[in-house]
Amino acid sequence: MRPRAARRVRARWLWLIALALPACASSPPSRTETAAIRQIREGYLRYYPEGRYNDHIVRSEIVKGMSLYEVLASWGIPDERSVSTLRNRERWGYVLLDDNAVDWVRYEFVFVGNELVEWESSRNVASGDPVDALHPDSPPPLPAWARGVNQPSLRSP
Fold first, then answer.
1. In the chain, what percentage of residues exceed pLDDT 90?
2. Is 128 helix (H, G, I), strand (E, B) or coil?
3. Domain for residue 18, yes or no?
4. What is the CATH number of the domain that holds 79?
5. E strands of the chain, at which residues?
6. Which of 127, 153, 156 shows the shortest CA–CA distance to 140?
7. Closest residue by Cα to residue 137 from 153, 122, 152, 151
8. What does the pLDDT look like over 52-87, one tens digit per residue?
9. Were both Cys, which of 12, 80, 149, 153 would link to 93 (CB 3.0–4.6 Å)?
């Protein structure tokens, strides 16, 4: 194969890979199931056994086009909720913690009418500073109500 033709083939493969990557990155978000979410989900599935998004709801996934009740059945009660009556918009916020409750991802779902039209996500990653770096030489001061008790020493004898 000539060098020019080889470059064209490589360029086409790179374009195909570049087009495929966003599809992998934009998979529907999902949330760990709790007893409360399970109860809401079971009620929804019992009332709407042929729902359009039931497969996603069972997997705790969110998809654009879902109704308020479908998102509620999938992820449960939001951590934050704001309603704008002027534009018939509603925003629901969910915060997902990692296993150690250090890093978190916040999802904000935007509804117009009763339909999920978009969402945004933001990630907070812990700085990774060791705990010793925060208080290198002395223990933190006690609050005023606890000063009558002997303050323990964190220094080794």
1. 41
2. coil
3. no
4. 3.30.1450.10
5. 80-84, 89-97, 104-112, 115-124
6. 153
7. 153
8. 999 999 999 999 999 999 999 999 999 999 998 888
9. 80
Indicate the range of 3-7, 9-13, 78-82, 116-120 predicted with least confidence. Answer: 9-13
Amino acid at 49: P
| Three-state DSSP class for residue 148 | coil
- The sign of the torsion formed by the CA atoms of 65, 67, 83, 93 equals negative
Per the structure, how many domains does the chain have? 1
Mean pLDDT (the chain) is 75
> CA–CA distance from 104 to each of 87, 97, 100, 112, 120 (Å)?
30, 4, 10, 26, 14
92: nearest Cα among 115, 125, 123: 115
Q: What is the largest CA-CA distance in the chain?
A: 86
| pTM exceeding the 0.70 threshold for the entire prediction | no
In angstroms, rounded to a whole number, what is the distance separating the alpha carbons of residues 37 and 146?
Answer: 41
